[in-house]
Specification:
The complex is a heterodimer of chains A (115) and B (112).
Chain A (H helix, E strand, L loop, with lengths): L4 E3 L2 E4 L5 E6 L6 E7 L6 E7 L14 E5 L5 E5 L8 E8 L9 E2 L3 E5 L1
Parallel strand pairs in A: 2-10
Antiparallel strand pairs in A: 1-3, 3-7, 4-5, 4-8, 6-7, 8-9, 8-10
Chain B lengths: L3 E4 L2 E5 L4 E7 L4 E9 L6 E7 L4 E4 L2 E6 L4 E6 L8 E9 L6 E2 L3 E6 L1
Parallel strand pairs in B: 2-11
Antiparallel strand pairs in B: 1-3, 3-8, 4-5, 4-9, 6-7, 7-8, 9-10, 9-11
Classes of the chains: A mainly beta (115), B mainly beta (112).
């Protein structure tokens, strides 16, 4: 596609529920990243996928968080048993192709609110 | 792992003045240092980057300097304009890790 697409754009859920956030990267980009941005805060790294290599999961804050990337394209970030502190904007980015391996193109984000 | 510290957290300047944002990093193996700009309600976008074999890079009104010995790098914006108002993030990455580590961001407000 023309850009990185994320869905849903907004998600309100109750504490304890599971949520899934989806990211569709730019076609041809081999690298995909998930970051979390809490209100007024910086970009916290969560997980990174590169081609067929094992993902770098070092940023996942707890075992309630997991992510997968199917067929080297679409990625899903799953948060189980959501807590109020999970409320944030979850940003996906991809890189590679003609844009170069270094330049991250971000999606618009999924705003998660846990009540 | 890498730790990137950024300051100031907020910066207000008059239109036409210069703005400087500074970052320090902890991992001496880091070799790539980009800056991203995030306008209100929008996604972050790359504005300039520098590699460790270069001390300074300039693109029109913005420039970035890198001091590898001191492990710090800075963003300089000259002749600021209201449209420069945004949150700016510095980041660092080392050769062994693809994911960028971001600073906490600087909210720049340019007063007309």
């Amino acid at each position: 596609g023309a850009g990185v697409s994320q869905s849903p754009s907004n998600k309100v859920t109750e504490k304890g529920k599971d949520v899934e956030l989806r990211c569709d990267p730019i076609s041809g980009h081999t690298a995909l990243y998930w970051y979390r941005q809490s209100l007024g805060q910086g970009l916290e790294f969560l997980i990174y996928f590169q081609g067929n290599s094992a993902p770098d999961k070092s940023g996942l804050p707890s075992d309630r968080f997991s992510a997968e990337r199917t067929g080297g394209s679409v990625s899903t970030l799953t948060i189980q048993r959501t807590q109020q502190e999970d409320s944030a904007v979850y940003l996906c980015a991809s890189s590679g192709g003609s844009g170069g391996a270094n330049v991250l193109t971000f999606g618009a984000g999924s705003r998660l609110t846990v009540l | 792992g890498e730790n990137v510290e950024q300051h100031p957290s907020t910066l207000s300047v008059q239109e036409g003045d210069s703005a400087v944002i500074k970052c320090t990093y902890s991992d001496s193996a880091s070799n790539y240092f980009p800056w991203y700009k995030q306008e209100l309600g929008k996604r972050p976008q790359l504005i300039i980057d520098i590699r460790s074999n270069v001390g300074e890079k300039k693109d029109q009104r913005i420039a970035v300097t890198l001091n590898k010995t001191a492990k710090h790098f800075s963003l300089h914006i000259t002749e600021t304009q209201p449209e420069d108002s945004a949150v700016y993030f510095c980041a660092a990455r080392n050769t062994g890790r693809r994911a960028l580590t971001f600073g906490s961001g600087t909210r720049l407000q340019v007063q007309p």
